Amino acid sequence: MTNWAEERLAAPEHVMFRELDGEAVLLNLQNEMYYGLDETGTRMWQLLTTSDSVQAAMDQLLEEFDVSAETLEQDLAEMITELKSHGLLETADK
């Protein structure tokens, strides 16, 4: 696992999250841009923003999905990087 495994992540105050039929819409109120997540992305988001660490989220996702740890780690890293770049996710205080 990479060095961000122990990070705790959260949605910034300027981000609104709404789940609709298993998928989600995120609204960044700062730039007024909408972003969509499919069912898998929504579950990742939920766990990333409620778990004590990225590692804890990954452990739960490995139980729920039929995926290798390496693939999940890569997918999570890409998602975290993408969400942070759009101001939709940030590192939280522990």
- The CATH architecture would be Alpha-Beta Complex
Kindly give the count of domains: 1
The CATH topology annotation reads as Outer Surface Protein A, domain 3
Principal-axes geometry comes out as globular
Enumerate the strands of the largest sheet in spatial order, edge to edge or round the barrel: 2-3-4
The share of residues in extended strands comes to 15-25%
Question: What is the CATH top level name?
Answer: Alpha Beta
Individual helix count:
3
Give the tags.
94 residues, alpha+beta, Outer Surface Protein A, domain 3, 3-stranded antiparallel beta sheet, two-stranded antiparallel sheet
Task: Give an overview in words.
This protein has helices at residues 39-50, 54-64, 69-85, and strands spanning 8-10, 15-20, 23-28, 33-37, 90-92. It has 94 residues and is α+β, with helices and mostly antiparallel strands. The protein has one domain: Outer Surface Protein A, domain 3 (Alpha-Beta Complex), CATH 3.90.930.60. The chain has a three-stranded antiparallel β-sheet. It has a two-stranded antiparallel ribbon with strand order 1-5. Helix 1 runs antiparallel to helix 2. It is globular and about 35 Å long.
Could you give a quick summary of the protein structure above?
The protein has a single domain, classed as Outer Surface Protein A, domain 3, CATH 3.90.930.60. 43% of the residues lie in helices and 24% in strands.
List the helices and strands and how they pair.
Elements (H helix, E strand, L loop, with lengths): L7 E3 L4 E6 L2 E6 L4 E5 L1 H12 L3 H11 L4 H17 L4 E3 L2
Antiparallel strand pairs: 1-5, 2-3, 3-4
Helix pairs in contact: 1-2
